[in-house]
Amino acid sequence: MAAAMDYELARERLTDFFQTFCVPDQNGDKTFIYADQIRQVANRVQTALYVYLDNLLQHDEELYNEVRKNSARYHQLTYDVIDKLVHNELRNAPPPVRDALDAFLYQRVYLEAQQRSADGADGNVQNDSRKKIPPKLLRRYEVYFVTPELDKCLAAREILAEHVGKLVTMRGIVIRCSEVMPHVNVVTYLCDTCGCEVYQEINGPQYAPTQACPSKDCQESRANGRLELQLRGSSFSKYQEIRVQEMSDQVPIGSIPRAMSVRVTGENTRLCQPGDSIKISGILLPQLRSGFKNQAGGLVADVFLDCHH
Ligand SMILES: [Zn+2]
């Protein structure tokens, strides 16, 4: 087996794909489909960016194979790459302000950088301001992978442990849809004593609120600054859980239909209803459980499909 591609090289090749992949339009001119969309994303006109793996296969087969082998990791790498491309797109312009969080980031990154450069600081001050803020808070878009047209469409019972971390295409009937709920990605707090801002990234389904101010000022003076949640500077996304069951043609005679839990986020929410027959691509992920439930679960881990398309 060939060694896995080095992630630095993978980032370069993903960047190349997004910048140079093009298709001819009706007039035979080149359309840079991803570069154009990244510009839209940077200007906050577009939120979801769908990456068609058919396109990647055509452009760079080796990279395509890496994405298939290690989809969850490559999803994160793709975010890193697009974060950079979006940042480059806005290098010489003030970032667009379309909602309260945009306004918050405009203030923290753009205006403070301008202030500091007016005060005579040198170097790339906008970069300095960005460094303090988690990338997840600056990220106002979503990236999804779309599996190739010819990918085998699996039934719930055909999705196995070997698919964990990988992209699969699945077919079934929606039997349950939850309400669309807000899911918090990053919480921003403000210290009532020293005024410093604290960011907390939320990766799992639960979080414990931070309470004591970690700033140097507060720690040294033992001021015990209290942190207050700042809704305006926090980032939320839409979140929905659906349950997809096998259709009768997928169930062997005498068997009971199996079902799979699917988590749907952002622009992919509210696209189906119970009774709909659907085809989904997504990454199979282990269910992270906390506390006692985890101990009871032992080695048997639940899985769910993180929906991409
Ligand atoms: Zn403080």
TrEMBL record:
Top-rank taxon: Eukaryota
Reaction(s) catalysed (UniProt annotation): ATP + H2O = ADP + phosphate + H(+)
GO MF, one example: single-stranded DNA binding
Main location as per UniProt: nucleus
Domain MCM N-terminal intervals: 12-144
Key words, A-Z: ATP-binding, Cell cycle, DNA replication, DNA-binding, Helicase, Hydrolase, Nucleotide-binding, Nucleus
Sequence ranges assigned to domain MCM OB in this UniProt record: 156-285
GO biological process: DNA replication initiation; DNA strand elongation involved in DNA replication; double-strand break repair via break-induced replication
Cross-referenced InterPro entries: MCM, MCM7, MCM_N, MCM_OB, NA-bd_OB-fold
GO cellular component, one term: nucleus
Short name of one Pfam family: MCM_N
Location within or outside the cell: Nucleus
Top EC class of this enzyme: hydrolase
UniProt-listed Enzyme Commission number(s): 3.6.4.12
Functional description taken from the UniProt entry: Acts as component of the MCM2-7 complex (MCM complex) which is the replicative helicase essential for 'once per cell cycle' DNA replication initiation and elongation in eukaryotic cells. The active ATPase sites in the MCM2-7 ring are formed through the interaction surfaces of two neighboring subunits such that a critical structure of a conserved arginine finger motif is provided in trans relative to the ATP-binding site of the Walker A box of the adjacent subunit. The six ATPase active sites, however, are likely to contribute differentially to the complex helicase activity.
Family stated for the protein in its record: Belongs to the MCM family.
Protein name in UniProt: DNA replication licensing factor MCM7
Organism, scientific name: Panagrolaimus davidi
Lineage: Eukaryota, Metazoa, Ecdysozoa, Nematoda, Chromadorea
